[in-house]
Design goal:
668 residues; alpha+beta; 12 strands; globular; AbrB family transcriptional regulator; Spore_V_R
Length: 668
């Protein structure tokens, strides 16, 4: 009979060296990851971990079984295989499937080390806690989620609590798990973002020194009270509560059928709501940085496995094939998009560094740059020092221990035979040496990148050259290039950005053109999808819409006493994309379970005139919809749809940020 644990121990022994060396290489490259604990698991255990979001223990709920079944079938029918999963924790925990080939295990390990670096240094992950992000040593997410699992399990097994009630309550909360204020630190997220309260007219009258007689005759006290209340209500509408779950924790109720009124939550309900809200904030960082994080891990994995030959000769073809499949997956691929964006940032930074030096050469200006610079000569001059580019046991004598690119201590050990430099040449180099060894503009695929710099960018560089340093020749200028500029810039950006801010800042026209991105839209006229635009601005808008609020509709609390009837008023912050009304109604039913009183949702819907649709089909153009504000109300039994008051519609209507990515003539 097969002993699974013996197989796991055997695999762990085989991977001991790759794990140690990958961690050392990651740090040599300038990464600063959390320490990582690696676990060897079998096929079924891996599927369970993926279903549980990367953790071994989660609270009892049917969603995990559904996720497990989906993952198992994807693997069974060849729709995608999971090689690893890693979680955001300190230390991080990574799970490797024991059936993976050694090439796949090495790829996974290098990928995980980069993820652990991103977890440890990205500020959006640091928001879970006090938001300072300086000390994350006490994160211990695995222990937190295990405590949550035990707590909810206790409620499920409590004979005084109906299991179906617990599951139904969890279902209701999970429908709203993304309605949090993910841009604020968890410790302060429940605090409402409010402007200064509107001034009471009475105070203004006091400042004007209006006499009592005038006030008594001109301003009725009851009218002043109504005005003050109206102003407060208006202020609430202008400053919605973004953390819906926090609002429900404080003001939510459950409907009691016996008394026919809303009553306080049971203690277990308050506890479950707080637990699920906490977990929503914990996972928010991963949802907000999916492209950035996967791209970061893919970039460094590729550099370590390919450029630094962490994959042995007999493993490289297997690795390259699997990496190509990952990057070639159809649809919006976060690995591909993220990696290409990071490579673009690196190339642009390095190009700017080289251009800055060349513009300081006598006789070279931003106007004549493309005419007088020999880009082939520059490429040859930029090539890494042969002593750095190719390191073997026979070439160790060519390295100078006083060279800042060389790790003197490691070089001495290598010369004494303590380091297998033929297998791990990077060990005798510093981060500075590795940056020169892997300078992006020297790679074959990027050889023409410097020559494609635009005159407008050259003009900006020249305009802000405040020093008067000059070089006598191109060779002197290139010799002064900082090879670490690109990596340093990448590390700076990975600290502060999420997917939305990164795409907004760095998805340029040049990037869109070189990587062949385009948008497509559903045509109301033809009833199918059509390519709409390849313009950079349209591609950026489409991607920003895809990643804003995790790609989900943004909904906030506008009033907890709507119509002075204790009704909840939610608002869908419309951005040009209409809600699926039927799906929205199902969510309102769940929200009612957390409010115990009627709930309302403000939104904007697009209505099409049938005659206009027919004309559009005949003329092969898009019909123009009419945007109408609606308020959907649910009272626990039935739905009502009302026209939305104009002042309320203004609160949720799209502003100057327009996500319509269809040019006016896209079907002509």
């Amino acid at each position: 009979m097969r002993d699974d644990r013996i197989d796991a121990r055997r695999e762990a022994t085989r991977l001991t060296e790759p794990v140690e060396e990958a961690a050392a290489l990651a740090r040599k490259l300038g990464l600063d990851p959390y320490p990582v604990n690696y676990w060897i698991v079998d096929h079924d255990e891996m599927n369970e971990l993926i279903a549980y979001g990367g953790f071994q223990r989660r609270y009892p709920h049917w969603r995990w079984g559904m996720a497990y079944d989906r993952q198992r079938k994807q693997d069974q029918f060849g729709m995608g295989k999971a090689f690893e999963i890693v979680n955001n924790d300190n230390p991080s925990h990574a799970f490797l499937q024991e059936s993976n080939s050694l090439a796949d295990q090495k790829a996974v390990i290098t990928h995980v080390e980069a993820h652990a670096d991103f977890f440890a240094n990205n500020e959006w992950f640091g928001l879970f806690g006090d938001g300072e992000g300086d000390d994350r040593s006490d994160l211990d997410a695995a222990a937190m989620l295990e405590r949550h699992a035990e707590t909810i399990k206790g409620y499920v097994e409590d004979p005084d609590i109906d299991r179906e009630d617990v599951e139904r309550f969890i279902d209701a909360v999970l429908c709203l798990e993304d309605t949090i204020d993910q841009h604020r630190a968890f410790a302060r997220a429940g605090e409402r973002r409010e402007r200064d309260a509107p001034a009471d007219l009475r105070e203004q009258l006091d400042e004007l020194d209006v006499s009592e007689d005038v006030r008594r005759h001109a301003f009725d006290e009851e009218w002043l009270d109504e005005l003050a209340e109206a102003e407060q209500a208006k202020a609430r509408l202008e400053d919605p509560h973004n953390d819906v779950l926090a609002f429900l924790m404080e003001h939510g109720r459950q409907y009691d059928e016996e008394s026919s009124k809303a009553v306080e939550f049971e203690p277990w309900q308050k506890d479950v709501l707080e637990i699920l809200r906490t977990e929503a904030y914990y996972f928010a960082g991963q949802k907000m940085t999916k492209v950035l994080n996967e791209g970061w891990a893919s970039y460094w994995e590729s550099l370590m496995m390919g450029d630094e030959n962490f994959a042995d000769d007999d493993e490289f073809v297997t690795y390259a094939d699997h990496m190509a499949r990952v990057l070639g997956s159809p649809g919006l691929n976060p690995y591909k998009l993220g990696m290409e964006l990071w490579q673009h940032v690196e190339n642009v930074t390095n190009r700017r560094e080289v251009a800055d030096k060349l513009l300081r050469v006598e006789g070279i200006t931003w106007r004549n740059f493309h005419d007088v610079v020999d880009f082939d000569e520059v490429a040859d001059l930029l090539a890494p020092d042969p002593a750095i580019a190719s390191i073997t046991a026979e070439t160790l004598a060519d390295l100078d221990p006083d060279d800042p690119r060389v790790d003197a201590e490691a070089l001495a050990a290598a010369r004494d035979g303590e380091i297998d430099v033929d297998r791990y040449p990077w060990k005798v180099l510093t981060t500075e040496g590795l940056a020169e060894r892997h300078f992006s503009l020297c790679k074959p695929q990027n050889r023409g990148f410097l020559g494609r710099i635009r005159r407008s960018e050259l003009e900006r560089l020249a305009r802000y050259m405040f020093d008067d340093a000059k070089y006598d020749s191109v060779a002197d200028a290139v010799a002064d290039v900082d090879y670490g500029a690109g990596w340093r810039r990448m590390r700076e950006l990975r600290e502060s950005h999420n997917d939305v801010t990164f795409i907004d800042a760095f998805l340029s026209e040049e990037f869109v053109t070189e990587n062949n991105y385009f948008t497509y839209e559903f045509s109301q006229a033809t009833g199918d999808f059509r390519v709409a635009s390849d313009a950079a601005a349209d591609v950026k808008k489409k991607l920003l819409l895809q990643f804003t609020n995790f790609g989900k509709p943004t909904v906030a609390v506008y009033d907890g006493n709507f119509g002075n009837r204790s009704e909840l008023l939610l608002g869908h912050q419309y951005n040009g994309i209409s809600l699926d009304v039927e799906q929205a109604k199902r969510v309102l039913e769940r929200t009612y379970d957390l409010w115990g009183r009627p709930v309302n949702l403000m939104t904007v819907v697009k209505e099409y005139d049938e005659h206009e649709l027919e004309i559009a089909r005949r003329r092969n153009r898009e019909p123009t919809p009419t945007e109408v504000g609606k308020r959907i109300r649910y009272d626990g039994e039935r739905f009502e749809t009302h026209d939305l008051e104009s002042d309320l519609e203004e609160r949720i209507a799209a502003n100057d940020i327009d996500y319509d990515t269809k040019p006016d003539d896209w079907l002509t």
